[in-house]
User: Fold this.
Amino acid sequence: MPILLDTTKAPVLQRLLEETDTSGLTWTIEPGGAQVPPLAETRVAGIANLERAGPQELSFVSNPRYQAQLVDARAAAVLVTPEVAQYYRQALSEAGRSQQALALVVCNSPYLLFARIGQWFEQQLYPAPPGSIHPSAVVAPGARVDGSAHIGPLAVIEEGVDIGPRARIGAGCFIGAGCRIGADSVLHPRVTLYRGVSMGARCVILSGAVIGDDGFGFAPDPSRAKGAWTKIPQFGGVRIGDDVEVGANTTIDRGALDDTVIGNGVKIDNQIMIGHNCRIGDHTAMAACVGIAGSTTIGERCSIGGAAMIGGHLTIGDDVFISAATPVHSNIDKPGQYTGFFPMTEHGQWERNAVAVRHLATMAKRIKALEKK
Amino acid sequence: MPILLDTTKAPVLQRLLEETDTSGLTWTIEPGGAQVPPLAETRVAGIANLERAGPQELSFVSNPRYQAQLVDARAAAVLVTPEVAQYYRQALSEAGRSQQALALVVCNSPYLLFARIGQWFEQQLYPAPPGSIHPSAVVAPGARVDGSAHIGPLAVIEEGVDIGPRARIGAGCFIGAGCRIGADSVLHPRVTLYRGVSMGARCVILSGAVIGDDGFGFAPDPSRAKGAWTKIPQFGGVRIGDDVEVGANTTIDRGALDDTVIGNGVKIDNQIMIGHNCRIGDHTAMAACVGIAGSTTIGERCSIGGAAMIGGHLTIGDDVFISAATPVHSNIDKPGQYTGFFPMTEHGQWERNAVAVRHLATMAKRIKALEKK
Amino acid sequence: MPILLDTTKAPVLQRLLEETDTSGLTWTIEPGGAQVPPLAETRVAGIANLERAGPQELSFVSNPRYQAQLVDARAAAVLVTPEVAQYYRQALSEAGRSQQALALVVCNSPYLLFARIGQWFEQQLYPAPPGSIHPSAVVAPGARVDGSAHIGPLAVIEEGVDIGPRARIGAGCFIGAGCRIGADSVLHPRVTLYRGVSMGARCVILSGAVIGDDGFGFAPDPSRAKGAWTKIPQFGGVRIGDDVEVGANTTIDRGALDDTVIGNGVKIDNQIMIGHNCRIGDHTAMAACVGIAGSTTIGERCSIGGAAMIGGHLTIGDDVFISAATPVHSNIDKPGQYTGFFPMTEHGQWERNAVAVRHLATMAKRIKALEKK
Assistant:
């Protein structure tokens, strides 16, 4: 579904780029040719994948794998690297088309520029609501809500909560006593924060996320029954930095005595479970369905693939890449990629191999015996 | 817990079957004998497992494995295949019991007939509420709610939503701007639909499901900090066909630019995660805890076992069966069953085998060397 | 974050222990020496990890691994085993410090005592709210709510619900028709109970948990379309014993015809999925992200590691320990630990080993052939 803005308001390309946050980026516009309107009249009504982008839509090529699509693209303009621009000019020339058809925005990092332009479009399409508290929300008298913050319908805000400037609390959220939510942070509908969770500025929390629920702590209590457990109250909090994203239905436990800590810029996908007293380093990203057991520390700039499962009380260093579906049961102190899952095969073959797996230690011995012969 | 209807209202067997949707089914009644009331008086007050079904309850045998229980069954009547009916008559005869005790409903597909009769009972026990909007719901003035639709307490319906005939929105649901919900679809309590999700007719969405949340997309943004990320806004939607079921606490991401698409008749269990821009073919079913990373296309009529994890940007063909707990990291273009998990053993044995696993490549070389000797 | 009570109210050590439930425990106080206030004046303002505990905080050493920290600890008092107390005295003596610095509470089970003292602190810090129903809650006229129970804002309580003495229903909970909630049970905000769920006394249900949602049951219905499914209504309930904890965003399906049953004292962490008709024995504990497919029975006092995945229609006996990340596809009738996951390695090594895994059955044959030579 391409994005559609009111094109009468859409700026021409130059103005769009000037209104976009291009900090850290360099860019130049190369006007398109006869097949598209001259640059001054190029109207950008939306952004779309290159395959589908029409003459009022902007697109991008970041991966050279897709650059061949440029020759037939119909977009208003395309964000490209200098290398892709060079490829495009040559491809046109080889095809005997002297005139460059597309307008190009040549940029050192077209993917990042594309993200920033997307953010500009998002602000036009879905502008932040004005500061207000929906009359159906239940806000404790002692909560402090900044005048520019927005509280959606049927949200519950308990005592001692502090909600910063321009923060937005979605419909049906529950914000427990004493939580602190930084400026420009956005909680989508139906997020739950238990008491005493703090988060910095510009965080985004998706629906169904639960932050600050009790960690899973029990002491054996044989005085009650054979095998019985008694609950260890969880007094720690959760401290979340700036620019953190937490996915839908993800859960982050509060600490037992100390806090669970999520660093700045950490990106956490959906249905992730982070146990009590974990510490996640700045800018680490983890894909959906990851589980991290309690008291594990993960370094900065790590990437954790989907459904990887990390045991408790471990230490993972900086710049570590865990492959998807990999269980981690030991510390990792060296940067690099780590993997561990059983490769999939056709089922019959798996069955034959699985029999052998059960005898691997014996196989190793038998090989040794053969070598001694 | 057997179902209990007011038996004074329960039809006799013949009438029950006439009131049930038996399209696609053939069935005949074989009256029971002396031990049960004559057919005209057989009252069916409920349905139950054969083991527990009493003289006013209906049951079924679909799997021949359970047919031996028929001889001592006390049910009002039992749905069976012609083959099981034949077995039953012979077993009675061998036991010297000439008179057929149970009433049988002989059917080409007793399991399907059982499901349909169950649906009839469900309608009697839990009739759909009349069209109405609970006064505590927060419904935007521009939302269109069909007069026969039901909106539960404390639901939030945003602008531009369209809710079809006889649809039911449970308590505490959040329906984002512009969502479309087809006729007879049912959202259980506390479902979240982000803006712009559309679903067809007769869908069932279980509690805690989140549909249309942002896909997980970030561009590296080293201008902010080493390893930092910037969010790529997610503009696509989610399009869901007819007759789809989505389980409790499942999450389905909206697309980045194009839509995420769920085909007709797809059945999705609890705690499943479907990434942005996935496309799931008609009638594919997936058991709980499955994860599918972004931009993966799955064919029609696939079965995906519980906790299988499917990587991103893959293509799985039609009629593929992925075993439970299997990670999928490559395309599958041939129908069949595919498996990949490490077989469980007693822990000590696993430890010994795990050591060998780490040396498998070396073992392979050593075998080759021995063969060359 | 250490806990801070109003120290003017905090009892001295002796009184604190007398106010704590110490049933099943034996304990004696050994007064501290010169470096801390004399026992009669020891004020306990909170509890903290030994490393961080200050002179008004209580701490504990349960694991001898941490006993070396005692020598430099600054806590008001420390709970220890007799063995750790003995170690401490000797360590002080060896260090030439004749005077015992810390007050010790010598106990047969310091970890359990610590949990019980924590519960005492929790009651002081977060006392149960008085019996009341928030005016924004939607309570059906036929629901029975004990006068001492607390119903939070925006909760929905349907017809026929029975809520026992001192039970607490958090903000935004949905309690379906006919549910029964025992005395002193606590539902955190935004829990969903479908109709007909029953739970005993002293249960704790964390936010986002969904209990009693439809099990995943469908019959093939080729009359509608190739590969189509029709829903099998789920009529069973969920019965939960006393002292059960259910984690955040966990889902427990209702039974198809019979009930799903969770025994007394069962502890279920976050994001766990329990299929329809499962039966979980008393005092079994399972860590986060576990999945249990339908109709599986698990014994008493089992421990199930995080992300273990247990197939359907299985029987697991008492006192079984399943390791984390282990898939279980067969019955287990003998107590013990069971494991099955592919060990993680550096990625390149994994790749080489994975190639060999696909040829394991062949490797086994080649070894046999070599042995015959």
